[in-house]
Amino acid sequence: MKRCTSCIMPYSVPGITFDEEGVCSLCRSYIPHTPLGEESLRQLLSSHGPGAKGYDSIVPLSGGRDSTYVLYLAKSELGLNPLAVNFDGEFRDSQAVVNMENACRALGVDLLVVRSRHDVAAKIVKANIKTAINLGLPSLIMAMCRQCSYGYTSVAYREAERNEAPFILWGTSSAESTERLQATMWENRLPSGWRRIRSINFYRTEYYCLRQRLEFSVSGNPRLSRRDPRLRNPRIHEIKVFDYLPWDRRRIKDTIIGELGWVKPPSRISTWRTDCLLHELVNFLFVKSVGCTKDCLGYCNMVNAGQMSRDEALQQEEAALSAIRWERMAFLLEHYVGLSPRDIERINVMQSQSPYPER
Q: DSSP assignment of 73-96, as one string?
């Protein structure tokens, strides 16, 4: 497969252009991120005291690499008393659960796990996938994350308000962000919304999403909105920790493994995005749609950020491509998502017609 000569972006990814030297538009437009600095972060954190229940911060924790490291920073480096809050999106990797529990135990941090009383997250995924089956592989990719996009955020906001904690510490970083690139990729490739509303499963999805919003409502947000919640409480401040501190991939891995006993799930190639079983499906569908995993887009960012060599990125991507098998995806769709054999076979027909065969 032909790839960017600077990162590992394949020529098959839509919306990406290449110059005469074979360098992709992602590399050409890359702007290095300059952190605001630890002193600025400490000054901000010192501006407020603990909340009503003694917690001075909320750390949304998934058991993945970056959120675990942010919890470590909050407790061990910044001297905070955080409450770790996990949204159980009903597709958690068992190793991620163990990683969360071990990290909180090692740090002496309280862990709160919040799950829908009605198991609506799994119902949203199932109905959303059934809606997308008629719409193509890109639509199937978009069907995987809606329940957590709302749930993960709303639970963090609700617990910050409930505990009067002045800060929410997020572990997102520009080095790993792929949202803008994905918006370019899928532009004009997703079907019209009119096709979606012809499916009864579209209305099932909306019904279950409404139930989720009612169960995890956030103050100041309309309950009938289809958008993710926004923080309306002026007494609570959201902080993206890696806007202030350098995102150092090697240091993050060494710290959480050495200090907290963090373990990468044995079935995963990368330590990135190991907290959700659905990510395996997303990677598979990405490969079938554009010829690379979703992780590959992050690797390209990491190469540009100097956090990963091109050779290492290519090695991890090639290993992931070699490990992808339809049998594993069919197992996840049947035993975790709960699709019928008929629906699984329809997805199988779609993926088998892809121009990117399994290796």
A: IIIIIS---EEEEEE--S-B-HHH
- DSSP, res 228: P
Least Cα distance to 13 among 296, 290, 284 occurs for 290
Cα separations in angstroms, 91 against 37, 166, 338, 358: 36, 30, 12, 25
pLDDT tens profile 92-131: 999 999 999 999 999 999 999 999 999 999 999 999 999 9
Q: Is the pLDDT of residue 269 over 80?
A: yes
Q: What b/e sequence results for 210-220 when a residue is b if at least 16 CB atoms lie within 10 Å of its CB, and e otherwise?
A: ebbbeebebee
Cross-strand bridge partners of residue 63 = none
- 124 neighbors 212 (Cβ within 8 angstroms): yes
| Contacts for 227-234: CB closer than 8 Å, 24+ residues apart | 228/149, 228/150, 228/153, 228/154, 229/150, 229/153, 229/154, 229/157, 231/157, 231/168, 233/157, 233/160, 233/161
One-letter identity of residue 121: A
Backbone angles phi, psi at 60, to 5 degrees: -65, 115
Tell me the Ramachandran region of residue 63: left when phi exceeds 0, alpha when psi lies from -120 to 50, beta otherwise: left
Name residues whose C-beta falls within 8 Å of residue 33's C-beta, 6 or more positions apart in sequence.
174, 175, 247, 305
Are 324 and 283 a contacting pair, CB within 8 Å? yes
- Residue type at 185 in one-letter notation: M
- Quote the pLDDT of residue 4: 98
Question: Can you tell me the distance from the alpha carbon of 142 to that of 289, in angstroms, rounded to the nearest whole number?
Answer: 12
**CA–CA separation, 4 and 20 (whole Å):** 11
Q: What is the pLDDT of residue 359?
A: 62
Q: How far is residue 104's CA from residue 100's CA, in Å, rounded to a whole number?
A: 6
**Contact criterion met (CB below 8 Å) for 61 and 84:** yes
Using CA atoms, how far apart are residues 172 and 168, in angstroms rounded to an integer? 12
Strand 167-170 relative to strand 82-87: parallel, antiparallel, unpaired? unpaired
The owner of tokens 């909306």 is: 206
Say whether pTM exceeds 0.70. yes
